[in-house]
């Protein structure tokens, strides 16, 4: 198993390109997740995220984590940016029985981890681990563990952690006839904290300019990030960092 380990923070970009049979496991162990002033929307003073973005319009986006105060859930979202190429990528109505979260029926592609698994409660617990399994042809599943409920095989440096032993995922997006697996492929892996988003209002900009003390908890404290893949597969290619 290849293990890729990150040792620095900022905006990080990796290239993840999956062969049809590829299975990847992205594991992010955090001691602190960014919190701060927020309107609960994309134009918030802070909008932290850990996500996969396509390298071109046709391949889409998977958000493994977005956080909006005061909602202490991880927002986990599949975007299909090109329905003409990939179809509409709908989720079966009965999907909620396959994951322990909420959201996402039919065309609504956002799922939310249980309350208390992000932001303030996550930090107060001393952090936790988010793990996303991308089985390219079949599904994406994600778990959001808060200490002390992190599975042992994510704590002890196990070279082969096994998601099948972790219980129900907190998000689940099946691929197949309802959603073309190629909707997600050739992705960059990104961490970022957006300030006020692309529609920044003057009110928002003033909060960022005038209230620096409100942002003293706006940081990722990353214990490790690892990407696991099958033997003889290349997990990731290239490393680019900025910010
Ligand atoms: C996708 O959805 C749109 C809007 O509902 C619809 O017009 C279109 O026919 C659908 N495309 C496919 C391939 O199902
Ligand atoms: C859920 O819906 C999908 C697609 O509509 C179907 O293939 C599957 O059998 C259903 N599962 C259950 C448990 O009803
Ligand atoms: C779902 O998650 C909640 C909150 O973490 C937990 O209390 C509950 O036991 C979980 N249920 C299942 C079926 O895993
Ligand atoms: C940020 O400020 C708040 C309020 O003054 C304080 O309680 C907290 O400890 C500070 N956090 C850090 C990391 O300095």
Automatic annotation (TrEMBL):
Residue intervals passing through the bilayer: none
Organism: Acrobeloides nanus
Keywords recorded for this protein, A-Z: Signal
Signal peptide range in chain numbering: 1-18
Gene Ontology biological-process entries: glucan catabolic process
Gene3D superfamilies: 2.60.120.200
Name used for this protein in its record: Uncharacterized protein
InterPro entries linked to this entry: ConA-like_dom_sf (IPR013320), Glycosyl_Hydrlase_16 (IPR050546)
Entries under PANTHER family matching the protein: GLYCOSIDASE C21B10.07-RELATED, GLYCOSYL HYDROLASE-RELATED
Annotated coiled-coil segments of the chain: none
